[in-house]
Amino acid sequence: CFLIPVLNPLLNEFDYGKLGPGVRAILVYPMNALANDQMDRFRVALKNLPQITFGRYIGETPSGKRKDAEIAYSKTHEGATALPNELLTRDEMHENPPHILVTNYAMLEYMLLRPEVNTIFQGEKAKSFKFLILDEAHTYHGAHGTEVSMLIRRLKERIFGKSDDCMQCIATSATLGGGKDDIVNVVTFANQLFSEKFCAEDIILSERD
User: How far apart are alpha carbons 25 and 136 in whole angstroms?
Assistant: First the structure.
């Protein structure tokens, strides 16, 4: 539901010759298992779109040479070869940030503290941020939700110099709210989590056959 809206502007940038290195979308997951599952989907979706780069920045993402990371990738993926547009190492992502960055909230906080990651969030390569996507949004409630909300504010302040109304934010969940009767509550939740303005028309409910 969010992949096509993310890929569309990237392809438009490519068509106009403006698709340089730099993150356009950050996907944040509560657990590494979910981030890893998403990477499998990206590998399928972006296999034939080599102009769009993507990378997973979590605790197990190695530093160092890509060649070493490719060997490790082959061992853990039954001999498969990594796609050329998948950035495998932290060093690669520091030098040329991927268009789509997959991480978790704990690692995102760590990244904001590390000076070597500044190229992702500041400077010329950080001027094209468009999307922040939180999957499993129902997990961000209570004190934990407050912490993540403050993390998002810090992220936006680092990139844009402000924390309100500066990014297109998307939250996905299979269990958030109870249908049309809860739309007002979901809007309030999204406003508080992202510090962005949402309205009832922004809430897309699931449809079942």
Answer: 17
Concatenating the DSSP letter of every residue in 29-89 gives: ESSHHHHHHHHHHHHHHTTT-TTS-EEE-STT---S-HHHHHHHHHHHTTTPPPPTTEE-S
Q: Global pTM?
A: 0.92
Contacts of 187 (CB under 8 A, 6+ apart): 198, 199, 200, 202, 203
**Burial code of 25-57, b = ≥16 C-beta within 10 A, e = fewer?**
bbbbbbebebbeebbeebbeebeebeebbbbbb
Q: What is the pLDDT along the chain (209 residues), one digit of tens a residue?
A: 788 999 999 999 999 999 999 999 999 998 888 888 889 889 999 999 999 999 999 999 999 999 999 999 999 888 999 999 999 999 999 999 999 999 999 999 999 999 989 889 988 888 889 999 998 888 888 999 999 999 999 999 999 888 777 789 999 888 877 778 789 999 999 999 998 999 998 988 877 66
Nearest-angstrom CA–CA distance, 117 and 132: 18
3-state secondary structure of 170: strand
